């Protein structure tokens, strides 16, 4: 069948779905050829492939890591925005950071699957605003942001965004305070940029070497992952958190079906999850 100008038959679709599941945990499900076509059309045209079958053959025969990386980038890059949903960042500022500050130790935050950097930089802005409030804060805060995609990590590290990107979720006050306007876009100011460290990471791999975290953001990341993969990732995150650590997931996501390591905490701003003792 032809989707978006490219041929994707049932066998090719099934094989491509297996490829994605094995390499990055993404579960396509049935009858989503339109998604494959829309995400891969530019890449297929660039390499001169007429069918997904041609792409699969190249992936099998060449072992080309660049091609594999480009395919994964195309299929896993998701929409993102600044301060998405709002309430998690209010909870972080008003509830989580003050509680962690009272423990009198360094605070480590992990933004998993950070895409082009809007989430970790939003976190960094919240931390900067919290640190500047009275009374003075003594606990240093570090932010690690990870993603599978080299291309979005490069964009995130650059800190450079176009005019449309910085409108989505940012107030005019924050745009003025945290960005420098350049001829080719808007660059996040060095004080915010240096607060975030970016690192490539596939959530299908072990992340035990990342160390322990007090706060983990894993929001709207695992929606298309299998139940077994979700279970393994959430349990892995729990192992990287001490009791009392906090996990933020998407507004429509639930972890109770996949792990018993977290309990729900309700605040006036909204709900989040806390690592059980």
UniProtKB/TrEMBL annotation:
Keywords on record: Methyltransferase, S-adenosyl-L-methionine, Transferase
Q: What is this protein called?
A: Chemotaxis protein methyltransferase
Q: What does this protein do?
A: Methylation of the membrane-bound methyl-accepting chemotaxis proteins (MCP) to form gamma-glutamyl methyl ester residues in MCP.
Q: Which residues bind S-adenosyl-L-methionine?
A: 78, 80, 84, 119, 147, 202-203, 219-220
Entry EC number(s): 2.1.1.80
Q: Which Gene3D superfamilies match?
A: Chemotaxis receptor methyltransferase CheR, N-terminal domain, Vaccinia Virus protein VP39
- Pfam families, per database record: CheR, CheR_N
Annotated InterPro entries: Bact_Chemotaxis_MeTrfase, Chemotaxis_MeTrfase_CheR, CheR_C, CheR_MeTrfase, CheR_N, CheR_N_sf, SAM-dependent_MTases_sf
This enzyme catalyses: L-glutamyl-[protein] + S-adenosyl-L-methionine = [protein]-L-glutamate 5-O-methyl ester + S-adenosyl-L-homocysteine
One example GO MF annotation: protein-glutamate O-methyltransferase activity
GO terms for biological process, alphabetical:
methylation
- Which species is this record about? Allochromatium vinosum (strain ATCC 17899 / DSM 180 / NBRC 103801 / NCIMB 10441 / D)
Q: Show the PANTHER family listed in the entry.
A: CHEMOTAXIS PROTEIN METHYLTRANSFERASE, CHEMOTAXIS PROTEIN METHYLTRANSFERASE 1
- Provide the CheR-type methyltransferase domain boundaries: 1-277
Per the record, the domain of life is Bacteria
